[in-house]
Amino acid sequence: MTTLSDDEQFMVRTVKEFVDKDVKPVVRELEHANTYPEALIERMKELGIFGLAVPEEYGGTPVSMPCYVLITEELARGWMSLAGAMGGHTVVCKLLLKFGTPEQKQHYLPRMATGSVRATMALTEPGGGSDLQAMRTVARKTEDGYVVNGSKTWITNSRRSQLIALLCKTDPDAQPVHHGISILLAEHGPGLTVSRDLPKLGYKGVESCELSFEDYQAPWDAILGGVEGDGFAQMMTGLETGRLQVAARALGVGRAALEDSLAYAQSRESFGKPIWQHQSIGNYLADMATSLSAARQLTLHAAREADAGRRVDMEAGMAKLFASETAMQIALTAVRIHGGYGYSTEFDVERYFRDAPLMIVGEGTNEIQRNVIVRQLIARGGLDS
């Protein structure tokens, strides 16, 4: 059972009210027009959502990981793109908190807590995908710091993020390869170009971009933690949070699809009765609810383990894998329940069907998650009871 403090319960309720009052009335119009939700992001700043991973000493409103999961679920229930806009930001907050130098923490975290500085991660490259060790972005040492050349792709919110946690090679000749990888804290400036916005099936409103680094200059103190070569291990730790966040996004999309389907199945009649009373539709709804409940418990379990300070790459991978596949199945079933209306842009279920695949391929594809899970199973000698 997940127990939240009174303050955390209030925070979840507040975000739920924000979604119902402010998000749901405008999401369809914003999403179809692919409009950046500036007003909604500003409201999220006011609610303290960008400071959920920042300690109070830096001006944040820190919450437990289970609370963070439930807040993310509420945001994604309204519009998955809003949850995406704060996902990478939270990971970078946690990376700074755990690995940053005192100067880096003091410089960034107070402004990140308010959302006046928003952050994102830059991992994926056009030719690399999930193979992070094959990256070609290199930061070469100079007398004044580093000169960066390379490119990244599928970088969320990168036009509007003031801070980019850039995974790059600071020692291209290091063996093994990951010993030469570092995280560079990059800010927009000469040599850093947003090359283009990528067209997407779903995940509208918030941009996903290609970034180009051409002789981009960064100072010596831009390396996270001030030590080269730790970036790969640092980012793997960050991805545990990232994958929990993606799992929570999937919960939100699946829940929205279930809620819409329940409402529709009670109001729509065929053959003289509400369609939920037809066994096939009733079975769909029962299976959707059961799978979603299982996915939530798996995600909350991983969140509790993370709060306990344990390594959760397997648990987060399981949560991300199961929750994302569940969301995709629920979204497809919601289209079936809505019949022809499920294919219409006048109903939201078509958006859920377009948004759900992102969680399957994002933050490490589900094929990669299975690799992570089986390696941990072997390393741990099986699955703990």
From TrEMBL:
Highest taxon of source: Bacteria
Domain Acyl-CoA dehydrogenase/oxidase N-terminal: 5-115
Pfam family, one: Acyl-CoA_dh_M
Alphabetical UniProt keywords: FAD, Flavoprotein, Oxidoreductase
Ranges for domain Acyl-CoA oxidase/dehydrogenase middle: 121-215
SUPFAM superfamilies: Acyl-CoA dehydrogenase C-terminal domain-like (SSF47203), Acyl-CoA dehydrogenase NM domain-like (SSF56645)
Cofactor: FAD
Residue ranges of domain Acyl-CoA dehydrogenase/oxidase C-terminal in the record: 229-377
Family in the record: Belongs to the acyl-CoA dehydrogenase family.
This protein's name: Acyl-CoA dehydrogenase family protein
